[in-house]
Design brief:
The chain has helices at 8-23, 37-40, 59-62, 68-74, 78-107, 119-127, 162-194, 202-205, 242-248, 270-280, 314-318, 332-340, 354-364, 377-389, 391-405, 409-423, 430-438; strands spanning 2-3, 29-32, 46-49, 112-115, 132-136, 207-210, 226-228, 256-261, 285-290, 306-309, 323-328, 345-347, 367-369. By secondary structure, the chain is α/β, with parallel strands linked by helices. It folds into 2 domains: 2-234 and 408-438, Rossmann fold (3-Layer(aba) Sandwich); 242-405, 3-Layer(aba) Sandwich (Rossmann fold), CATH 3.40.50. α1 crosses α16 (409-423).
Length: 439
């Protein structure tokens, strides 16, 4: 049984892994909100409706001014944005717990694969003695880097100056008083819902499958309960529509295609959209822009060189040879898809892990970065020209493509799930091995 928040960025890798297990003969169910039912239809996965109270990937809500995603997209401080998102999840904890419990009791799955954000599912799995695997799109703080390297959540380069090194090392200590009340509230809710005074740290006790790999992630020693498998993509990708395929393949006097997409949660402001349009309006560019319908009203009048779509099959678009540059918010799924196809990225991060991811791309030499607070058309144009004219970016992106293609991905992740079903994870816990040697 898979459990995820109804947000595409959280579910894409889980659905691909679930489909692989279906192809291997397993009975697989997916617990998710009704709004996401179509994501698992026609996959062989059994859909189980989960009616919790949570803001979802229903785009009509994501771009309302009261939406958490509208608020964090405008927030200048990344740590305040992180705190806002954590507080929103805490508000939903009790609802998630109470609505998941009868589902788990009814179906009694042999094993759970849970999105990293669904802590109530992990608590219930522990209480009901159901084996649980956590899945994450990025390594994050599961394994911290040395204090001499950028910490997760920062936007510092590996080439930090002395002041940045100081803030990188001691800054998190200053944030502790800000987050202690939030964490205390979460743990209080966990205890109230479960009736248990003590609940474990699931991220140190359970197997974690991470859908990325070194290169994108800063290298560090990895403990045995964390398995990095690279991007988890579906076996087959959704094809381009005939109309979009024809547009991409139109040879209009040697123009190059730039692709823009900021996911389903980012809230772009009209002045930011205007800067992008002005910076990319040029006879030598054709621009494909995938933007949710509820956001399209913020766009200025678009020149004929722009094509606007509410949705495109992103992997198919990025794998097309006509597409040269990807302008992205830098969610981990988008990064994986672009680099797998060897496409340089112009990063425009808005919240969460996007800031950290964007800086990693610059460090890798596969991209350049824009800034949401002072986005200017001249900066957009200058950096697009650099990515197109300096071959080092495409060479670095192709190198990352080769790394991602041999990382294991979907099949390796499924192998890990099968192994866990067969033998569990006790052999991966040094404390258990030590106890056995002393018996």
């Amino acid at each position: 049984m898979f459990v995820s928040l109804p947000m595409l960025g959280h579910t894409n890798q889980l659905i691909a892994l679930a489909q692989e297990l279906v192809s291997r003969g397993y009975k697989v169910s997916f617990v998710i909100s009704e709004v996401a039912k179509e994501w698992v239809e026609h996959t062989g996965i059994n859909f189980i409706s989960w009616n919790q109270e949570l803001e979802t990937s229903d785009e009509s809500n994501n771009h309302h001014k009261d939406s958490i995603w509208h608020q964090v997209s405008k927030e200048k401080s990344n740590w305040r944005g992180e705190k806002m998102m954590l507080e929103r999840l805490i508000k939903s904890y009790a609802s998630m717990y109470k609505t998941l419990e009868p589902i788990f009791r009814k179906y009694r799955p042999d094993i759970l694969v849970v999105d990293r954000a669904v802590i109530p599912a992990m608590d219930l799995a522990w209480q009901m003695n159901i084996p649980c695997i956590i899945q994450s799109r990025f390594l994050g703080n599961f394994v911290k880097t040395s204090s001499n390297l950028p910490r997760f959540g920062s936007s510092y380069s590996i080439k930090m100056n002395q002041w940045e090194r100081f803030v990188n090392r001691f800054g998190p200590l200053l944030l502790i008083p800000q987050f202690i009340p939030v964490i205390k509230k979460l743990n209080q809710l966990r205890s109230e819902c479960s009736g248990c005074q003590y609940l474990p740290d699931h991220f140190s006790k359970n197997l974690i499958i991470v859908g990325t790999t070194f290169g994108i992630e800063i290298p560090r020693p990895i403990p045995p309960l964390i398995k990095m498998v690279g991007p988890i993509f579906p076996k087959t990708i959704e094809p381009l529509s005939p109309s979009l395929k024809e547009w991409l393949e139109a040879d209009e006097e040697g123009t190059v295609v730039l692709y823009i997409a900021f996911g389903t949660l980012v809230n772009l402001e009209s002045w930011q959209a205007k800067a992008l349009v002005e910076g990319l309006t040029d006879p030598k560019f054709r621009v494909l822009w995938s933007i949710p319908k509820s956001q399209q009203h913020i766009l200025p009048s678009l020149p004929s060189s722009f094509r606007m779509e509410s949705f495109v099959p992103q992997q198919a678009v990025l794998s097309h040879p006509a597409v040269r540059i990807f302008i992205s918010h830098c969610g981990m799924n988008s990064i994986n898809e672009a680099l797998y196809c060897g496409k340089p990225i112009l990063a425009l991060p808005f919240f969460g892990d996007q800031y950290y991811n964007a800086t990693r791309l610059v460090d890798l030499g596969v991209g350049l970065k824009l800034y949401k607070e002072y986005l200017e058309s001249t900066d957009v144009r200058r950096k697009v020209d650099s990515l197109l004219n300096n071959q080092s970016y495409s060479h670095a992106a192709n190198r990352m493509s080769a790394i991602l293609k041999i990382s294991g991905g979907r099949e390796l992740a499924a192998d890990i799930v099968e192994t866990t079903i067969a033998v569990g994870i006790r052999h991966l816990d040094p404390a258990v091995i030590y106890e056995n040697q002393n018996d």
